[in-house]
Specification:
Radius of gyration: 13 Å
Largest sheet: 7 strands, mixed
Number of helices: 0
Strand content: over 45%
Distance between the termini: 39 Å
Length: 120
């Protein structure tokens, strides 16, 4: 079964850090764009970050740029999101995604999501 599985979510105080990880299984995702989206209660899903197949190019939403860092390890079939200086407005369910073309609001593969809660 081809799937993405996230881990690393939890509760953290404002100003703290969390690292999300996403492990692919059932296929190799080394040739795929990978990324993260999030969805807060009552809000639409939003793009957070993306990384190309080699890891040489990354992109970020303005709201997280300079605070979040996306990285990948193709030898382990994983992608990670380091989140620093977290704010209460970062509270959301975070989804790992993969797509052969680009990362957007629709993607070929989705993880089940992991909850991140930032307390003030």
């Amino acid at each position: 079964q081809e799937q993405l599985v996230e881990s690393g979510g939890g509760l953290v105080q404002a100003g703290g850090s969390l690292r999300l990880s996403c492990a692919g299984s059932g296929r190799t995702f080394s040739g795929y764009m990978m990324g993260w989206l999030r969805q807060a209660p009552g809000k639409e899903r939003e793009f957070i970050a993306a990384i190309n197949w080699s890891g040489s190019s990354t992109s970020y939403a303005t709201s997280v740029k300079d605070r979040f860092t996306i990285s990948r390890d193709n030898t382990k079939n994983t992608v990670s999101l380091q989140m620093n200086s977290l704010k209460p407005e970062d509270t959301a369910v975070y989804f790992c995604v993969a797509d052969r073309q680009r990362i957007g609001l629709t993607n070929e593969y989705w993880g089940q999501g992991t909850q991140v809660t930032v307390s003030s």
